[in-house]
Amino acid sequence: MAVLGDLEHRIMEVLWTTDQPMSVRDVHEVLLGEGKIAYTTVMTVLDRLAKKDVVSRYQESRAWIYRPARSKAEFMAGELGQVLNEAGSDRCEVLAALVPTLDPKDLGALASALDRAAQSFRSAQAAATPRSSEVAESVES
Description:
Elements: H1 6-16, E1 22-23, H2 24-32, H3 39-51, E2 55-60, E3 63-68, H4 72-87, H5 91-98, H6 104-128, H7 132-140
Antiparallel strand pairs: 1-3, 2-3
């Protein structure tokens, strides 16, 4: 995945704000409300987003219909994951440097997500660890 350019981001915001698939014309009309933009420019950018697997598309009659391939949260999480992967061995340092930049609401959401992930990890570990009675039975056999 690549970080979106300004126009790609504007187009994705249009697609993310609706539950309905949109044609190039639909997206173009929304963007025209923000200022002048050529239909062919919107068409080209949507085609590039499809080739990057950022949007999915299908043809309906003669028109291509587009929708986001992932939710905005899933897409952005993927982007953050890529940045962390690029940090390599400094991954933990980058995460630690990010925390002070978060506002209290974001910190609360992060803490909740970490609690859920830790609980899920503990549950998976407990399920994978044989109970002492199972170990005793296998030794006796």
